[in-house]
Design brief:
The chain is α/β, with parallel strands linked by helices and 267 residues long. The chain is built from twelve helices and seven strands. Strands 5-4-3-2-1-6-7 form a seven-stranded parallel sheet.
Length: 267
């Protein structure tokens, strides 16, 4: 009973703060104007068949090891969870190992609550570079799910919030992606591509729920992973030309108005 009361208080507090502060999701200085590839950390990933310089790339935590193997020196955007900077658990240690000496053009660190200088020092400790660095707090992340997915969430626990891979999908849509292609994001999988520990993956239920909602709303979200396409129902990416005719017309009719630059500036 005490735990339930504590969660209820937390839910009420976060919802009040969210509605009072009216946070805006993170916005790129230069919006996307083409397809965006979001690469997660699941053990299996597939590079899009027609990948070229028109794609923009988003990585999450240690998934940069995948894009590096594909010849991509630095992702356009990297999302890194706060605990990966100083954490001592297996996952955090492994993330720092594979990111050592790498860089990103735009780096978002999620939920960092300590001094900015400490964050910069933490990144320097494993030689991670960036052109621009920004912190994304809980309420900006909640705003992404609300504005794009139409889902209000208080982030009370792992089952109540989506993974940062799904947040990256929402971020890409909010920032103008014409299509979002995901790989290495699989609600049914366990483990991570950058280690052999087979650690449990969190947020499975919420990830599936949000992906299914995006499908229902007609957003142009695809996957290059056949298993995910079959399991979740996302259309399989077969190339930019074919993708334009993939989304069913009935679903297109349900699609909300496009997230234009004006809508982002004046939500």
């Amino acid at each position: 009973m005490a735990a339930q009361l504590s969660e209820l208080k937390k839910h009420i507090y976060r919802q009040i703060k969210y509605h009072v502060t009216r946070p805006k999701p993170p916005v790129l200085a230069e919006r996307f104007d083409g397809p965006v590839l979001v690469v997660g950390s699941a053990p299996v990933s597939h590079k899009p068949v027609d990948f070229d310089e028109t794609f923009r790339v988003i990585t999450i935590n240690g998934s940069q090891v995948v894009t590096k193997a594909w010849g991509i020196e630095a992702p356009d955007v990297a999302l890194v969870q706060f605990n990966q900077i100083e954490g001592t658990n297996t996952n955090a240690v492994e993330v720092r190992r594979v990111l050592n000496g790498e860089r990103a053009k735009m780096l978002y660190v999620l939920l960092w609550r300590k001094e900015f200088q400490r964050l910069e020092d933490g990144l320097k400790a494993f030689n991670y570079g960036y052109d621009k660095l920004e912190i994304v707090d809980r309420y900006k992340r909640m705003a992404l799910l609300d504005r794009v997915g139409g889902v209000k969430c208080s982030e009370l626990g792992a089952d109540d919030k989506c993974s940062n891979g799904i947040n990256a999908v929402l971020f890409a849509l909010y920032n103008g992606a014409t299509e979002v292609i995901i790989t290495g994001i699989n609600p049914d999988s366990g483990g991570h591509v950058y280690n052999k520990e087979n650690l449990a993956r969190l947020h499975v239920r919420k990830d599936r729920e949000v992906l299914e909602r995006l499908i229902e709303r007609g957003f142009p979200v695809f996957t290059t992973d056949p298993g995910v396409s079959q399991s979740v129902g996302l259309p399989l990416w077969t190339g930019k030309v074919r993708a334009k005719g993939t989304v069913d017309a009935d679903i297109k009719a349900k699609r909300p108005p496009p997230l234009t630059a004006a809508a982002v500036i004046n939500p």
